[in-house]
Amino acid sequence: MTWTNPLTLLRHGWTRHWNPDRPVRTVVSNLPFEDLKKREQPNRRYEGNAIRTNKYRLWSFIPMNLFEQFHRMANIYFVGLAILNFVPVVNAFQPEVALIPICIILALTAVKDGWEDFRRYQTDQQLNNTPCFIFSRYEMSYLIKRWKDVRVGDFVRVLSNEIIPADILLLHTSDPNGVCHMETANLDGETSLKQRKVVPGFSSLGEPFQPQTFDSTVVCENPNNNLNLFKGYVERPDKRRTGFGIDSLLLRGCMVRNTDDAAGIVVYAGHETKSMLNNSGPRYKRSKIERKMNTDVLFCVVLLFFMCLIGALGHAIWLETFSSMPSYIVPDSNGNYTPSVLAGFYMFFTMIILLQVMIPVSLYVSIELVKMGQIFFITQDVELYDEELDRRVQCRALNITEDLGQIQYVFSDKTGTLTENKMVFRRCSVMGTEYCHEENAARLAVISGANEEEEVTIYQQTKLPPLFPLEELQDVHTGDKNHANTQVTAASRRRSKVAAEAQSDMETVVVPDRKLILEVDRQMASIQTGPYLDFFLALAICNTVLVSSVTAQRQRVRVNVADLAGAERVGDVLRALTHSTKTYSVQQICQKVISSERKVKSGLSGSEEVCYEAHSPDEAALIHAAKAYGFTMMERTPHYVTVKLPDEALLKFEVLDILTFDSTRRRMSIIVRHPHTKEIIMYTKGADSAIMERLGNVFSDCCSKIKCVEQWCGWKAVCFSLKVISEQEFRAWSAVRQEALSAIEEKEERLMETANFIESSFTLLGATGIEDRLQESVPETIQALRRAGMQVWVLTGDKPETAINIAYSCKLLEHEDLVFTFSTNRKVLQCQLTNASVPEQSLICVSQPVSSGKLGCIGLVIDGPTLSMAMSDELVEQFVELCKHCRAVLCCRVTPLQKSAVVKLIRQKLRVMTLAVGDGANDVNMIQAADVGIGVSGQEGMQAVMASDFAITRFKHLQRLLLVHGHWCYSRLANMVIYFFYKNVAYVNLLFWYQFFCGFSATAMIDYWLMIFFNLFFTSAPPIMFGIMEKEVSDSTLLSLPELYKRGQHSEGYRRSTFWIAILDAFYQSLVCFFIPYWTYNGSDIGIFAFGTPMNTVSLFTIILHLAIEIKSWTAVHWVIMIGSVLVYFIVTLAYSAICISCNPPSDPYWIMHKQMADPMFYLVCILTTVVALLPR
């Protein structure tokens, strides 16, 4: 084995991840180079598929962990003092004893870090050894290997319900249409299936995939963490290029569904896959209390400095009072005495060692334990549990629980956060004629009046045979009992999932309007074409909805990426077949498994009824509306979409291109060839503003007729349009489009240009009105947050009419409010930027209400373009000043970037604590910009949840999370931190006062071991218990009186004055605890430890009872810990004084405690001193 220079390895690892000369990644097949060594293969510079998320190795654990712990200044401080104690001229007590406290703290932290890292190592090993299918050129078949054996350039095959081992470019599927369905729940939490399609030209119907014939080169972008973007092209030997995007990439960690098998070439592996690049671990933020606490630690350092300075000066002055050195001052080895000034200098460092406990070494560890306990109780709160979704609140940021009690501004999304995001079709307008759907409205009114808890339809579940009978092999290994438990658990989860995902009749059933259905029937019977038919065809096909059979639903296995339960089937197959060989040919195994699945599916396919899996609720509402009028989408493939008409005829449209929806264009288009007329037609749907601005002039009359859309307040308007494209125009545009698809640089910009070019001169067909119902208890929640002193803003991308209607419904705006609506067009934008007339007039208008005390009467509504103007450098100060005077602010038509910009602006300009809550991917920027981010796990996936600090299922849960748990966490932690400072200062001052009576010689009247035990064991548990379980006010009181929340907003629990009052209280109590025993035993002949034992005991009683006074709600746990701490003190002290015969010569604590407890004076001193010390409280 040859030795390699570590610098060479480091340089190689750096160039592997970053090479400016390689802006793109080039991947070729590994099969022609299978017999070469790894260093000679063309894909050698790319990462392997083995992952390693643990930080330490066995040999590097101790140095690396210590290095990380020493990033905390308190640890460096105490280690430095322990080392200083080894210097003979400044040591205060036995050097080994000084190491004990910091060693215990470092050891406990190291054990915690090591255990967490070991669990990560076990997960990595389980993941890396998962079986998978890799093609071999020698065997000419797929062999079973491990995930860690996968490399970039390998051909991998994935079966149905199997987890994808790496990022794979899809080249073949068993589906005749070249389609593969993928479930990304393990990656982004979204349960809807994603459709992936084979790269064009690499899937031949009826022919098996032959990886050995692949001679093309894959060129793609370098690894990145964008789950929604992937660009590249496949270059054939003849230099022809075929572009591909994210719709051809199978992502690691996802699961193949509804597809027998899929195969492709690996482009990213291991830590370069998109899933691993998105795995950033728990979020870390510094809370507001922690920032204040660090400042107070510096104050304690300053206080310690002055106390040590007093000790140094006192010792020097005390030595100067002697005309000759007394006998108890020992000279050095040469018989010389240390000069008083130098002795005072040495004493300064000795005093630092003696009084080091002034800085609370265990405070940081105690805070971590307290926050873990607080998070446990938050997640276990049954009031925050959603029974319908079977989810509880999630705490993803582990160290900002107390910030929940200090929020001043709340920024909320609308759709899916304040509303259900369960869209209901209400009405439509076709060619200028509005159809109100009165019968459907009456049906919805009846359903809304019924019990909402019965709204979800519970249907009978039929037990289907498993798609993979080989799964039964697992029962042999797990046993019948475990299998039965697993079935019970799976059944309960399945019932919860069914209740959460089943769509109610309100969303899926639409009663057709009589006038509209007559018009549709008239056109169907006469001309077989027309705007009404085009309108409903647009509803049916202009979407991304997937079609599947109701009777052949996919079996969804709840699998976690870390658990890899989906890979167990392959492992069971291996164990059942053989244990002797390392690799196997699995061609027959795959065929057997696939054939069994097909057999099950064929046996189930007996109904023509279809069900839809929509990526968004509005698409589901629209396609069900089309189905209600007889336009039923029956099948969707990458190349065709089939629609059944009301007369049962089938129209099979050839799909030429799809322009997907994005937040910039705010529309989606599908280009198809009509099966009868052979015309190329583009159907487009989108927001009203995105469609209206691109209509042809000839249809201005129709545009004026559809003004009724603006009157659909509270409903989401989706407009539909049509454009007929000539063959020549489409061919020219398609050529440019293909070039853009094959591009690597500026691909998104070029695709946007091509979409904007073709999406013009529309013919407006009509519009639909979709209602999004308000969530339960949203108005009450907003009112409670306002009573608690929080300003509530709503930031939404909807049009102002819809947003304003929802704002009134949820009580964000009241009808008595004075509402300013700011909206500007582009022609006057420059004028407003120059003169700033609107903000100035607004400030004049609001000045009177503010002075008259009517602050809660001002509301502001502003749209996206005006918001951009208001946030410009010229107007931003006036805009912020205006917002300060508004009770509610509603921002409409805003982009995701504008949402985050608004949050950052208010947080930085007003220096307030902000909270952002949202449910969709467009809210991620806003959530991450706020001090506290809340994700709502609703209908739009889990991207907001994954980016958040806390996750809830309903907006109403925000009330209890903030007003109850936020208040509790803040008050608990604030009081605990203040108590820690008080406790340490009060105890250290006992030693400081004694210095005035021992010549400032840094002598301690308390045994060193008992001093260490005092902070580590005797008084450590009560404050931790206090920080976890204290409830100064009950939850019912906090919910009924939200005004109590203002205590945290104003930092009343932890102010600078509170800190100094606690320090003064500590000084007072230390004076009492020292001088009452001193005056009692003054003039007696007791030893130094006999003198210090009553002080130590009195100090314990005072500190414990001080905390008892602070506790407002006593439980059995409080009594056990408080009494237990006192009992532990006496037991340990008695045992220590009984066995410590010569622990600290010349004065030893042997039998001291026993003698003191036999003296009645000891009890009188303890009682009297404790009462006097706590009398002011």
From TrEMBL:
Which GO molecular function entries does the Swiss-Prot or TrEMBL record give?
A: ATP binding; ATP hydrolysis activity; ATPase-coupled intramembrane lipid transporter activity; magnesium ion binding
Q: List the keywords (alphabetical).
A: ATP-binding, Magnesium, Membrane, Metal-binding, Nucleotide-binding, Translocase, Transmembrane, Transmembrane helix
Tell me which domain of life the UniProt entry assigns to the organism this sequence originates from.
Eukaryota
Leader peptide range in chain numbering: none
Q: Where in the cell is it found?
A: Membrane
Q: Name the Pfam families on file.
A: Cation_ATPase, PhoLip_ATPase_C, PhoLip_ATPase_N
Q: P-type ATPase C-terminal domain: from which residue to which, for each copy?
A: 945-1177
Q: Give me the segments passing through the membrane.
A: 74-91, 97-115, 297-318, 343-365, 994-1018, 1059-1080, 1086-1109, 1116-1137, 1157-1175
Every copy of the P-type ATPase N-terminal domain together lies at 40-97
Q: What GO biological process terms does the UniProt entry carry, in alphabetical order?
A: phospholipid translocation
Q: Does the keyword rRNA-binding apply?
A: no
Annotated active site? 413 (4-aspartylphosphate intermediate)
Q: Which residues bind Mg(2+)?
A: 413, 415, 919, 923
Write out the residues that bind ATP: 413-415, 619, 661, 685, 796-798, 893, 899, 922-923
How is this protein positioned relative to the membrane? Answer: Multi-pass membrane protein
* GO cellular component assignments: plasma membrane
Coiled-coil spans are: none
Q: CDD domains, per this entry?
A: P-type_ATPase_APLT_Dnf-like
Entry's EC annotation: 7.6.2.1
Identify the cofactor(s): Mg(2+)
Q: Which family does it belong to?
A: Belongs to the cation transport ATPase (P-type) (TC 3.A.3) family. Type IV subfamily.
Q: Which PANTHER family match?
A: PHOSPHOLIPID-TRANSPORTING ATPASE VB, PROBABLE PHOSPHOLIPID-TRANSPORTING ATPASE
The protein's name = Phospholipid-transporting ATPase
**Organism annotation:** Cyprinus carpio carpio
